[in-house]
């Protein structure tokens, strides 16, 4: 796709179609939900904090009084919560056109979740791995469905450290974030390979937003944030623009399974949407398969392919 060709205004009405956006109460998830609602898609805002979710829903309704929105509770850092969400969702809905795995955290202090995961690996990657697996049968039954894992330019410096996957030996907040985002991207590619092998039409399409100032910076030390802040407008774009590669991955024409979209400006930090750069490691099939097998074991989901 040529970068100049993505014009969100050209995406036609999505009435009758259903999307889940995780982490839709703020930042890129909120803007993604807003873009989809503008296209008349029904959007399930899957959030961990119902007070914030309710406020976000009303924020969208003030802009789009006819928006079809539903809020549902999910804490992606807890496998039980992900399972409960899937049970609730499947009891109410028999289709899922688009699953956007957006929720995430960045560089928090070390926390081991009750499932034994490092918290960034839990929220950004393992929770979405389980969620996708639990919803997969419904997604693949839905015509023209897509799964959109949200990655980051941070994947480029990421490594999958199988010996210390949950940072129990030594914790680096940055390495854990990079690893979690690399894992999301590898998951997207591996999922597409498996969908294709099984002859299924659902597409797995990854996206990253570039850089946008959002609550993701909440764990960045204040002094660092204050130094960077004056330069940020030069190398970032607003969250509504950051959401565009995600929306393109979800709804764009000419999208193929296994594609990866992001902004094409300086170092992919901002700009118009196009094909994103992916490191050789992110495309490594053996590492992706090993990660997949471990993820099935650790989350307790067995994919049907
Ligand atoms: N902003 C950027 O420059 C940037 C760059 C590259 C990639 N990304 C990726 O884009 C995605 C969205 O980030 P953002 O910038 O929009 O961050 P954000 O403003 O902090 O929003 C993150 C969202 O995820 C939710 N969330 C976090 N942990 C969760 C959990 N365990 N269960 C359920 N929801 C959870 C948050 O809920 P609460 O509000 O309740 O905390 C919030 O709704 C992330 O995957 C991030 O890695 C962002």
The biggest sheet amounts to: 6 strands, parallel
Shape: globular
Query: How many domains, as an integer?
Result: 1
Overall number of strands: 9
Small ligands present? NADP nicotinamide-adenine-dinucleotide phosphate
Mean pLDDT: 96
Count of helical stretches? 10
Helix content: 40-55%
CATH architecture, please?
A: 3-Layer(aba) Sandwich
* Low-pLDDT residue intervals, each spanning 5 or more residues: none
CATH topology category name? Rossmann fold
CATH superfamily: NAD(P)-binding Rossmann-like Domain
**Strand neighbour order, sheet with most strands:** 3-2-1-4-5-6
Give the topology string: H per helix, E per strand: EHEHEHEHEHEEHHHHEEH
The termini sit apart by: 30 Å
Notes on the protein architecture:
The protein has about 300 residues and is of the alpha/beta class. It has a single domain (about 10-300), classed as Rossmann fold, CATH 3.40.50. It has ten helices and nine strands. The strands form two sheets. A six-stranded parallel beta sheet has the order 3-2-1-4-5-6, with helices on both faces. A three-stranded mixed beta sheet has the order 7-8-9. Helix 4 (about 120-140) packs across helix 10. The chain is globular, with a radius of gyration of 18 Å. The model has no long low-confidence stretch (mean pLDDT about 95). NADP nicotinamide-adenine-dinucleotide phosphate binds near residues 25, 27, 47 and 104.
